[in-house]
Amino acid sequence: MSKPSRATAADVALAAGVSKWTVTRAFTPGASIAEHSRERVLQEAAKLGYRPNLLARSLTTKTTNLVAILVDDFANPYKLPVLEVLTQALQAEQMAAVLININQHFDHLSAILDADQRQVDAVILVGTDFKDEALKLSTLPASRPPLYVLARESTIAHIPAVSCDASVSMAAINQHLWAQGYRRPGFMSGPRSLSTALGRKSHFTAFWQQQAGITVPELAAGSYDHRAAAQALRTYLQQTPAAERIDVLMCENDALAIGAIETARHEFGLRVPQDLAIAGYDGDELAASPSFNLTSYRQPLQEMVAALIDMLKGRSAARSINLPGELIIRGST
C-alpha cells in the first residue's frame, strides 16, 4: 500500500492565494505577517491537514527543539515524576524529548554520541552513575550538544547541574532527628557515582561527627531499589546484636527507605519508629501512604525543572544551582 501524500507549504500557498514564504511566516512564532494573511493561511492549512515539517525547518533554524534525556536507573520510582514534569515543561516550550536508556549494552558516552548524531539541542543527565571519563570534553566532539545534570550535583565544572541543596536539606533532617533524641544513626547509600555526586551522605555524617563525635555506619545498598535496600538492612540486622544496632536509619532516597521499612517490620518484627526510625529523601507520593508514613525531604521538582528550562532557552546563564526543598515529618521518625 502506498503512503498517502502529505500536503505541502506550496499546496497551502496555492489554496490561500499567497506565497510559500507567507505560509512559512504564518507558522513561525514572532514572524512579521499581517493578521488577516495568517488567519487565511491557517484556515487553508486546516482544510488540507497541513503541518510544518519540523525536520526541514531545523535545517534553516539550526535547532531541532529535541532534547535527549539519559536515564540509567529505571528501578528508582522517583524517575517517573521527574520525567513527567520535565517532559511537560519541554513540551510547553515547543520542545520534545528523546529518552535514552543507559544500560550495560549502551553506556553514557555511546548515548551522548548517538544524541549528537541526532542533532539534539541539549542532553540532560537524569541518573546517578555517570563516569567522569565518559563526560570529559576531550572524549566528545567539539560540536557536541550542551550537557546538563538534573536532580543531582555535578563535580565537572563544564556541566551545569540543577539540584536540591544537600547542605540545607540534610541540616533540616539532622536537626529533626537530633531533637527527637536519636543518637545511634546509620546511613543507607545507593550507587556510588563519580561525576554526579550526592552530598547527602557527607553532610549527614559530618553533622553527627561534629555534634557528638559519632561515627555513622554505612549500609550500602548499591542501587536505588527496594530489594537492594532490603538486602542491605537484612545483612546489617543479622550481623549486629540488638543492643548495638542503630536507632535511626537515614536513607539516600525514598525507594531505599520503603524497602528498609518493609524488611524491618515483616522480616525482623521491628516497630517503626519505636525500635528503628527511618527517614527518606525525594518526597515520593508512595512515601506518604499510610503503609509507610515516611518522613522525607521533598525535592523542589517544579522549581528545578523551571530553572533548567530557562537555561535551555537562554533566559538565564548556564550554571550550577542548588534550590531548597521541604522537610515532611511523618510517623516513621
Mean model confidence by pLDDT: 88
| Rg measurement, Å | 25 Å
**Sheet with the most strands: spatial strand order:** 2-1-3-4-5-11
Give the CATH architecture of the largest domain.
Answer: 3-Layer(aba) Sandwich
- CATH H level, superfamily name of the largest domain: Response regulator
CATH fold description of the largest domain = Rossmann fold
The H/E string reads: HHHHEHEHEHEEHEHEHEHEEHEE
Tell me what portion of residues adopts beta-strand conformation: 15-25%
Query: Which word captures the global form?
Result: elongated
Structural class computed from helices and strand pairing: alpha/beta
Stretches with pLDDT under 50, minimum 5 residues: none
Number of helices, counting only DSSP H or I runs of 4 residues or more: 12
Annotation, overall tally of beta strands: 12
Characterization of this structure:
InterPro entries: HTH_LacI, LacI/GalR-like_sensor, Lambda_DNA-bd_dom_sf, Peripla_BP_I. The protein has three domains: 9-52, 434 Repressor (Amino-terminal Domain); 63-164 and 302-324, Response regulator (Rossmann fold, 3-Layer(aba) Sandwich); 166-299, Response regulator (Rossmann fold, 3-Layer(aba) Sandwich). It has twelve helices and twelve strands. The chain has helices at 9-16, 20-26, 35-48, 54-61, 79-92, 108-117, 132-135, 166-179, 200-212, 226-239, 254-266, 301-312, and strands at 66-71, 96-101, 122-126, 147-150, 161-164, 185-189, 218-220, 248-251, 277-282, 295-298, 321-323, 326-328. The strands form two sheets. The chain has a six-stranded parallel β-sheet, sandwiched between helices. Helix 1 (9-16) crosses helix 2 (20-26) and helix 2 crosses helix 3 (35-48).
